[in-house]
Amino acid sequence: MGKRFGWVMVLVAFIAVFCFHGQAVAKKHLKGYETLVVHNVTVKSDAGIPERYASNLKDALLRQLQRYNAKYKWFKKITTKMPSSKAGVVLLDAEILSYVPSTVGRRIGKSFIPGGGYAGSASVQFNCTFLDGEKGKVVLKKDVNAKSSGSNDSVEYAIERGAEYMAKVVHKNR
């Protein structure tokens, strides 16, 4: 009875691993694309955030995606310009939903308190949508809530960390 139960457990474990591995492989949403275009980055009208952060996010997304692409070789090209042929192209659109500016008033100076530091923070919330270049259908959608704190308590730094997170999302889905 004990040996038979052991073999049954091994068989069940093998089948479970095989099934879950098949599901993990099926979730590669960005596979088969050769070009990634960082397309539109907008600010939601009621977000209350300056428009300049849209260009900051676009630049950060392009920089982080190109940085990771140099190492992992996901795409042949990552750009902001739409190629003439839309075959094999995936578009990345982002929208900034809200932000919390740096809380500079909460900084604690090191000169006043021994061992003190910065207690400020900032955050930015945006969503990214990957669209098929030919069909225009949504391939992948991800919400990002990026925060920064400590001595790097700026919205720009939070945007940079959010863009790095999106590069990791691309890596997982490639």
Tell me what the structure shows.
The longest helix is centred in the first third of the chain and has 25 residues, at 2-26. The chain folds into two domains: 1-30; 32-172, Double Stranded RNA Binding Domain. It is α/β, with parallel strands linked by helices and 174 residues long. The protein has helices spanning 2-26, 52-72, 155-172; strands at 35-43, 77-79, 89-100, 121-132, 138-149. The model is unreliable at 21-26 (pLDDT under 50). The relative contact order is 0.18.
Q: Quick summary of this structure?
A:
The chain has 174 residues and is α/β, with parallel strands linked by helices.
On the 0 to 100 scale, the average pLDDT is: 83
Order of helices and strands: HEHEEEEH
Strand content: 25-35%
Output the CATH class name of the largest domain. Answer: Alpha Beta
| Count of helix runs | 3
Present the secondary structure layout:
Elements (H helix, E strand, L loop, with lengths): L1 H25 L8 E9 L8 H21 L4 E3 L9 E12 L20 E12 L5 E12 L5 H18 L2
Parallel strand pairs: 1-2, 1-3
Antiparallel strand pairs: 3-4, 4-5
Helix pairs in contact: 2-3
Which key terms come to mind for this protein?
37% helix; 2 domains; 3 helices; Double Stranded RNA Binding Domain; alpha/beta; 174 residues
